[in-house]
Design goal:
By secondary structure, the protein is mostly helical. The protein has one domain (8-308). It has helices at 11-25, 28-34, 39-62, 66-74, 77-99, 102-109, 112-124, 130-147, 156-179, 188-193, 197-212, 214-218, 225-250, 255-262, 264-277, 283-308. Helix 14 packs antiparallel against helix 16 (283-308). The longest helix is centred in the C-terminal third of the chain and has 26 residues, at 225-250. The protein is globular, with a radius of gyration of 19 Å. 44% of the residues are buried. The model is unreliable at 1-6 (pLDDT under 50).
């Protein structure tokens, strides 16, 4: 969506932004585990608290063109499909985090690039190379390793939800590219507004997530101040601020640098949970997760070096 710049003066800012994004994303596990609400309630509250941030960002970006951007975005079916995908990704991840360990939830969601590879041709007509196939095989082996100890356990449903969350996360960037792609008869004015469509998708997706758990949101019981603090952190920091920081980072760093630093998220997420709750992943989950993370990072580095070569 945005081109990266590697100018020396902005690189330290870029590194700080992507590290801040990874740290913010990594709070998901401990935050979800720390709030004594159902998964649907957490999804709704988190998105409700993130909405004002995304709304302010959209207004600031488009200013007087707000109504025109909304009309253009909401009139495209691709916007709605992408928003539904984004809402489902958030919903399935939170539910998975409630049903299985935080490590399983985040590491299985980290298989998202595998789905990008598998769906690039059907959706965008982008060819798949041998290195892509190797990456898919690596992720599949990691998934199989994950489930070696989970075939008869209570965490199986959570693991399957986490896996589907990874599919949603992988599908999202493909749908966003379709949503902001100009049509064959697109005029210059429309082309100038299309880059704002992804922000509308995020805004709409969070609205749909609020609606998904709205009855539970209305019936929220009395919560402690610490629980409310976690909900605010999940909405404002873990969703909204993380997106803004990562968007700022990709304008200043190469894609491979963003990928490498953002991969701290699946490492830090279970660490915070282990420190805060004592929850530890199984040995199979650790080995499978390491295989998935190393496969994703290796594929990203190879792809970036190949493009720059």
């Amino acid at each position: 969506m945005m081109r990266s710049s590697s100018s020396g003066s902005s690189r330290p800012i870029g590194f700080a932004c992507v590290l801040g994004a990874a740290l913010s994303w990594s709070l998901a596990g401990i935050g979800i585990k720390s709030v004594p609400l159902s998964g649907l309630s957490i999804v709704s509250w988190r998105s409700l608290l993130a909405l004002p941030v995304f709304a302010l960002v959209l207004v600031w970006r488009v200013r007087s063109d707000l109504l025109e951007v909304l009309w253009l975005s909401l009139g495209r079916w691709q916007t709605w499909v992408a928003a539904l995908c984004y809402a489902y990704t958030m919903l399935s991840f939170v539910l998975a985090s409630k049903l299985t360990t935080a490590a399983n939830a985040i590491l299985l969601q980290y298989t998202a690039p595998m789905y990008v590879i598998l769906l690039s041709w059907p959706i965008l007509r982008e060819r798949v190379g041998p290195h892509d196939i190797v990456a898919v095989i690596g992720c599949f082996l990691g998934i199989a390793w994950f489930f070696l100890e989970q075939l008869s356990s209570a965490g199986l449903h959570g693991n399957l939800l986490a896996l589907s969350s990874g599919a949603g996360l992988g599908l999202l960037p493909l749908l966003l590219r379709r949503a902001e792609a100009p049509g064959p008869h697109c005029d210059a004015r429309t082309r100038s507004l299309l880059p704002q469509v992804p922000t509308v998708v995020l805004l709409l997706g969070n609205c749909l997530a609020v609606l998904a758990g709205f009855p539970q949101l209305l019936g929220t019981p009395s919560l402690s101040p610490s629980s409310w603090l976690w909900l605010i952190l999940l909405g404002v920091v873990q969703i909204a601020l993380a997106y803004l920081l990562y968007a700022a980072a990709v304008r200043r760093l190469r894609a491979v640098e963003c990928l490498m630093l953002a991969s701290l998220e699946p490492i830090l997420n279970p660490v915070w949970v282990a420190l805060g709750t004592g929850e530890l992943p199984s040995r199979a989950a650790v080995y499978g997760g390491l295989l998935i993370v190393s496969t994703v990072i290796g594929h990203g580095m190879y792809s970036a070096l190949r493009k720059s070569g």
